[in-house]
Write a structure and sequence with these properties.
The complex is a heterodimer of chains A (116) and B (111). With 116 residues, chain A is mostly beta strands. Chain A is built from no helices and eleven strands. In chain A, strands 2, 4, 5, 6, 9, 10 and 11 form a seven-stranded mixed sheet that branches. The chains are: A mainly beta (116), B mainly beta (111).
Chain lengths: 116, 111
């Protein structure tokens, strides 16, 4: 079964709306979670690394004020797309790594965000 | 910087073997991974290999790693129509510990 749960799976909203996406690790603790963006027919682009209890680390070119990340617990990270515009429409995917293991990251099922 | 390349498309007939290739540049990579993505879905981990291994087999999947040439391949035996998807290789950078994904290979299985 799924070990990383991502919600919602699909969002359609008007331009200017802020949208929150949740990423939960279901049966393990994750001090680190990752947020990716995927454009159609392209690879995954790492946006930021979410660290529990501290500030997220953003990749070059990703706007911190646009994509707010909160990692308040060992099982939950949230990504908020603030004042979303059509160019923010994309597929957003999170992943998490078990803090007690060197196993690979587990990925959520992704969120399809469509801004009208 | 770190770079991971894959061929964009592969077409095979059902029952044949598929071989998807990947090249990377980071010689300090610790782990290399293969993920499968079906349309509109997230990523499913298929298999992974530690950088000091040459080969790993898991049922129909065989991963070969040539560390000298920085070349990774995924062989799928007896390919089925359900294997049609995009396959991503990824490396876990030695310096950053982040996952760097390849460009993805679309595998089309013809019945």
């Amino acid at each position: 079964g799924a070990v990383v749960s991502q919600h919602p799976s699909r969002v359609i909203c008007k331009s200017g709306t802020s949208v929150k996406i949740e990423c939960r690790s279901l049966d393990f603790q994750a001090t680190t979670m990752f947020w990716y963006r995927q454009f159609p027919k392209q690879s995954l682009m790492l946006m930021a690394t979410s660290n529990e209890g501290s500030k997220a680390t953003y990749e070059q070119g990703v706007e911190k004020d646009k994509f707010l990340i909160n990692h308040a617990s060992l099982t939950l990270s949230t990504l908020t797309v603030t004042s979303a515009h059509p160019e923010d429409s994309s597929f957003y995917i999170c992943s998490a790594r078990d803090r007690h293991s060197n196993q690979p990251q587990h990925f959520g099922d992704g969120t399809r965000l469509s801004i009208l | 910087g770190e770079d991971v390349e894959q061929s964009l498309f592969l077409s095979v007939r059902e029952g044949d073997s598929s071989v998807i290739n990947c090249t990377y540049t980071d010689s300090s990579s610790t782990y290399l991974y293969w993920y499968k993505q079906e349309p509109g879905a997230g990523l499913q981990l298929l298999t992974y290999i530690f950088s000091n291994m040459d080969m790993k087999q898991d049922q129909r999947l065989t991963v070969l790693l040539n560390k000298k040439d920085k070349h990774l391949s995924l062989r799928i035996a007896d390919t089925q129509t359900g294997d049609s998807a995009i396959y991503f290789c990824a490396e876990r950078g030695g310096a950053t510990n982040k996952l760097i994904f390849g460009t993805g290979t679309l595998l089309a299985v013809q019945p």
